[in-house]
Sequence to fold (318 residues):
Amino acid sequence: MSIQSALADLNARFKYRSDRGESWKILKGKASIFGDCEDYSLTLIWLAEGKSLLRFWLALLTFKYVMFYCKTPRGVGHAVLWVRGHGWVDNIQREFVPSLRQKGYRLRFPYLVPHMLLLMLLRPVLRFLPVSSAGAGKKIAIVVGHNARAQGAVRSIDGMTEFKWNGHLAELIRAHDPRNIKIFNRVPGGGYSREIDRVYGEVDAWGADCSIELHFNGSVNPRSTGCLTLTSGTRGSRSLARRVHDRVLTVMGNEDDGVRARGRRDRGGRSLWQGRAPAIMTEPYFGSNADFCQVADAHKDELAEAIYRGAVEYLEAA
Ligand SMILES: [Zn+2]
Fold:
C-alpha cells in the first residue's frame, strides 16, 4: 500500500486514547482502532509496508522511517514519524509536513531499532502488570456541570452548551479507565440545592475517592480568557486542584486564573462541599472566546488526559 493510502486508511479509523505506561503497539484491528502517538506511527509504517512485520523492521533498519521523540509547542512529550521523501507526520497533523520546527515542535532524539524492539516486546509484560498501577484502583467521579434543562453557558462559535460539551469531555476522560471512572449527571428538580445534594449523594454512594465537576466559563466579552480551577480549600481538594489545573493550563495555553477557593455558600460552592470526597470544579476556558473554543476542541483528547492524569497523580499521592 502506498504511504498516502496507508495514511488515509489510518486517519479514517484511528482514535486517540492514551496508554497506560509506555506500551507500544501496532494497531491491527480492521474497524476503528485506538492508540496514542507512538501507536499511530507504528501502525502507519505497518500499513504502508503491506502489513508485513518483516518489511516493517527492514524499512526501519534502512531508515526509510525514523520515529522521533519530541516536545509539542505546549511542552508535552510526543512521538512523530519522519518518512523518507515525504516529510513528517503525526496523529496531530495527520498529513505530511515539510518541517515540524515551523509548527513549534522541538525534536529531542530518534528511536533506534533496538530501543523500539524492546518497547514493543515489553508490551505483553506491561499488560499483565496489576491494574493498580494507575490510581491504585481508586475511584474518580466526573460530574457534568448543569443539566439537560438548564445547560449553562453557551459557546460563541457553535452555540454548544456546557452540558453538551462537557458531557462529551466526560466520556473521553472515562475512556482512560472505565472501571474506576464514573460519569454523574445532575438531574433538575426541587431547586438548585436539591439537585446538587442529590448528585453528590450518588457520588458518595458509589464510593468516589475524588470528584471533578466540569464547566467552562461564560462572559459577554469575546476576548475574555483564562483557565480557572475551583477548590473547597481543604487539603485534599487543593492538592487535586493544583495537579489538574497545571496540566489543563498547559494544554489550553491561556491566561492562568489560578486555583481559587470557594466557600459552601459561594456561587458553585455547594458542589465543592456537599460530597464526602475531595471535590474540584474546572473552568478551562471562556466559551465566549472563539480562539480558545477552537484550542479546546483541537486538544479535547489532551484535555481529558490532563484531567485524568492530574486525578491519578493526586490519588497515588493521597
Ligand atoms: Zn458552568
Remarks:
- Residues 145-146, 152-153, 162, 215 surround zinc ion (CB under 6 Å).
- DSSP finds eleven helices and twelve strands in the chain.
- The chain has a mean pLDDT of 91.
